[in-house]
Write a structure and sequence with these properties.
The complex is a heterodimer.
Chain A lengths: L1 E10 L2 E11 L4 E5 L6 H9 L4 E10 L2 E2 L5 H6 L2 E4 L6 E5 H15 L7 H14 L4 H5 L1 E2 L5 H15 L3 E5 L7 H13 L6 E6 L3 H5 L4 E6 L2 E6 L2 H9 L1 H4 L5
Parallel strand pairs in A: 3-10, 3-11, 6-9, 9-10
Antiparallel strand pairs in A: 1-2, 1-4, 4-5, 7-8, 11-12
Chain B lengths: L2 H12 L13 E3 L6 H10 L4 H15 L23 E3 L13 H10 L6 H5 L1 E7 L2 E5 L2 H7 L2 E4 H7 L1 H7 L10 H9 L2 E7 L8 E7 L9 E7 L4 E9 L6 E4 L2 E6 L4 E9 L10 E12 L5 E8 L4 E4 L2 E4 L5 E10 L4 E10 L5 E10 L4 E10 L7 E10 L5 E10 L5 E10 L2 H9 L4 H12 L1 H4 L4 H14 L6
Parallel strand pairs in B: 3-7, 6-8, 7-9, 8-11, 9-12, 10-13, 11-13, 12-14, 13-15, 13-16, 14-17, 15-18, 16-18, 17-19, 18-20, 19-21, 20-22, 21-23
Antiparallel strand pairs in B: 1-2, 3-4, 5-6
The chains are: A alpha/beta, B alpha/beta.
Chain lengths: ~250, ~475
């Protein structure tokens, strides 16, 4: 489903990813771990197509298609979803309005008819319940005044509503206490599906206690420096990154 | 592609997108080009006006000859040649009173393109439209239902003939003939407009609406609106404006006067979408408008809501004179300027009575190379004890070549007054746009969504059927403004 080959990415002329290779199949959950500054967020942004992240070498193939040739919104319509580390606030736009606008934009891009207001409301309500997202939250402007936990839950709610094929979770655990973390992780686990691939990006092992990955890649200095099963996370937790990662200069 | 290059390309395209830029080919009955006492006589005669009205106009014209065009606003435009314009244009073969069936089908087609619901659907929408086509009101609907309630809703030319006492009593009492250069010009040459009178204790049974449209080339449109809400009455009035696309600039100098007596309330909403000119700043409407409401009675209320997306130049300050004790004035504004548009708009809240309150919410959006100025006056007079004002001015910038300016004037002559002013300036953040794109929302739709969010407090003030149109307009006016 996702094939990243020898990916080099520069931001503002500075090379951040230096030859990253990664492959992900439907139904799989892979984790990307790595120290700060290793290029984790750069990877998530370049997959989503953020402006300013320039591919200088290598390729990203998504379902047989060159992903880098697509605009960010086209990627979204084709099932690429990025749960962001810092979800942004959009004052004056209610969460519900945002969800409806986004869902219908994706549907239109796929040639599907719009869902009417009632249809969206039903869909969102059903999904919101399991994630403990209140009706009141849906009426508030998007992310404005939301707590860290609320913001992350809302990201997962969007993932549930849009039903992406490839979900990238960027530091979804950051800023969450243990209860919030569990709730978010449960939401993610409920979305594990044989047709869906997930890339879970995290600094800490604790998230992987809840979302157990099929495979772990350790990113450092812009390259994958170690790979293994879920036990690799425990090793990292016990010994620290420095032990495994001989950080290139 | 860099954002700057893309912006330039997309801005270049937007000039082509003015949806209402079509011309209706109808024979026009016109006054000779230019402005003189003869022009005033011509217009007055065409309207079949009584002598007192002609005298009033001539007085205004004499006064106007002595006045200078104001130049304090932050707008720049070539000198207007007042002798080069036509001051009266009416569709030919239009006898004064006629039913909708008799109206030229081409005219109705025009309205259809504009999306004005002039036929039966209006009943469903509950809107009565007094459509002003250039200078003459050609169709007025829903008169019967309004008559039942005792509401007078008619072209002002008709009111001058049929309700001279009311017109004489109120015309020019809020915006005096001598008020300012453009208002005085309007007093001399106004060709038509709307008159509304809501009698004591009557809640107007429907939203009243006028749709203005400038059609003939090189004509000025000088409509005049007079709305009187008698004691304890309520009326909501909607005004929408569009004009066809032309290379020359057209002058629009309207006057609107509102009068609210004791315990009366007037809600006046405008969606202004005059042709803004092309992407190089060629053509477009010069919109110099004087709108003022007088809260003459105690506990009266006047509320202005405006969505200004059009015109090359906007010079407009809908104001409230809070004369009656405990009267309330409100001003909710969205002003969008794109390409080379210049908007200098705001309000004046003049607190004369005790315990008067005013509220100003202004949202200015600038894109392209546009300049957008909020200019407002809050003035508390000596007798206005416990007067209160709250002002909030927010500016949103799109791109790096536009400007937003806030010029608040605050005067207080009473120590018990409380005046608050808040102002913010922000840009559409790159991370907001990226967030929307990532969720599948294309760029233009994302800008529209974010800007509509920014304007939400004001949009909420509009009557429902107008709000939807206004939201779309906000999006259309900013299409392609972000690269």
């Amino acid at each position: 489903m996702l094939d990243i080959k020898n990916l080099h990415v520069a931001v503002g002329g500075k090379e951040i990813l230096k030859g990253l290779t990664l492959s992900l199949q439907p139904g799989q959950v892979h984790a990307i771990m790595g120290p700060n500054g290793s290029g984790k967020s750069t990877l998530s942004y370049v997959l989503a197509g953020r402006a300013g992240y320039d591919i200088t070498e290598g390729s990203i193939t998504y379902n047989g298609e060159d992903l880098s040739a697509l605009k960010p919104e086209e990627r979204a319509a084709k099932g690429v979803f990025l749960a962001m580390q810092y979800p942004v606030e959009i004052p004056g736009v209610t969460t519900m309005t945002f969800l409806k606008t986004a869902l219908n934009a994706q549907r239109r891009a796929r040639g599907e008819p719009d869902l009417d207001a009632i249809g969206v409301l039903k869909l969102v309500r059903a999904k919101a319940k399991t994630l403990n997202v209140s009706e009141e939250m849906l009426k508030r402007p998007l992310n404005v005044g939301f707590s860290g936990g609320e913001k992350k839950r809302l990201e997962i709610l969007q993932m549930a509503v849009f039903e992406p094929k490839l979900a990238i979770l960027d530091e979804t655990d950051s800023g969450l206490d243990i209860d919030a973390l569990r709730l978010v992780a449960e939401g993610v686990n409920a979305l594990r599906d044989p047709s869906r691939a997930m890339l879970v990006i995290t600094h800490y092992q604790r998230l992987l206690d809840y979302i157990v990955p099929d495979r772990i890649h350790v990113l450092a200095g812009g390259r994958i420096v170690a790979e293994g099963g879920k036990e690799l996370a425990l090793e990292l937790e016990a010994k620290g990154y420095e032990h495994i990662v001989k950080v290139p200069a | 592609m860099s954002i700057a290059v893309e912006t330039k390309q997309q801005v270049a395209e937007i000039g082509e997108k003015y949806k209402y830029g079509f011309v209706t080919d109808i024979e026009m009955d016109m006054a000779p080009r230019g402005l003189s006492e003869d022009t005033v006589h011509f217009i007055s005669a065409k309207k079949g006006e009584p002598e007192w009205m002609l005298e009033w106009r001539l007085g205004a014209f004499k006064r106007w000859l002595t006045m200078k065009e104001p130049n304090w606003a932050r707008v720049h435009y070539p000198k207007i040649d007042y002798q080069a314009s036509y001051y009266y244009a009416a569709p030919k073969n239009t006898p004064l009173k006629q039913s909708l069936d008799e109206v030229d089908p081409k005219l109705l087609e025009t309205y259809k393109k504009l999306g004005i619901p002039l036929h039966e659907q209006m009943a469903l929408a509950g809107v009565a439209v007094d459509a002003v086509f250039d200078s003459v009101s050609v169709a007025t609907t829903f008169k019967d239902k309004l008559n039942e309630a005792g509401v007078i809703f008619c072209p002002i030319s008709e009111a001058i003939r049929d309700h001279p006492d009311l017109v004489k009593k109120y015309l020019g009492t809020v915006v005096p003939v001598t008020d300012n250069f453009f208002a005085t010009l309007n007093a001399a040459v106004f060709s038509d407009g709307t008159f509304v009178y809501v009698p004591k204790g009557v809640r107007c049974p429907m939203e009243l609406s006028t749709y203005f449209r400038i059609n003939a080339s090189e004509t000025g449109q000088f409509e005049r609106t007079l709305i009187i809400a008698d004691e304890g009455s309520y009326v909501s009035y909607l005004e929408g404006c569009t004009a066809p696309k032309r290379d020359e600039n057209q002058l629009h100098a309207a006057v609107v006067e509102l009068i609210a007596l004791d315990n009366a309330e007037i809600k006046y909403s405008t969606v202004q979408n005059w042709y803004p000119g092309d992407e190089n700043g060629l053509g477009g409407i010069f919109n110099f408008v004087t709108k003022r409401g007088d809260c003459r009675g105690k506990k009266s209320k006047i509320s202005w809501t405006q969505v200004e997306t059009g015109s090359a130049i906007t010079w407009k300050y809908p104001s409230c004179i809070l004369r009656g004790d405990e009267s309330v004035g409100e001003f909710y504004s969205i002003a969008i300027a794109n390409n080379y548009q210049q908007a200098d708009t705001g309000t004046k809240m003049i607190h004369l009575g005790a315990n008067t309150r005013s509220r100003i919410i202004s949202k200015g959006i600038s894109a392209g190379k546009a300049q957008n100025t909020y200019r407002g006056l809050v003035s508390v007079y000596g007798k206005a004890k416990n007067a209160r004002n709250y002002t909030q001015c927010d500016s949103l910038l799109i791109g790096g070549e536009c400007g937003a300016h806030t010029v608040p004037y605050i005067e207080s002559r009473n120590p018990t007054a409380r005046i608050e002013h808040e102002a913010t300036t922000s840009k559409i953040a790159e991370d907001q746009l990226f967030y929307c794109l990532q969720r599948g929302i294309p760029q233009d739709e994302a800008v529209s969504l974010i800007v509509n969010g920014f304007c939400r407090e004001v949009l909420q003030q509009l009557p429902m059927e107008f709000a939807v149109e206004a939201q779309k307009l906000v999006g259309i006016s900013l299409e392609g403004s972000v690269g």
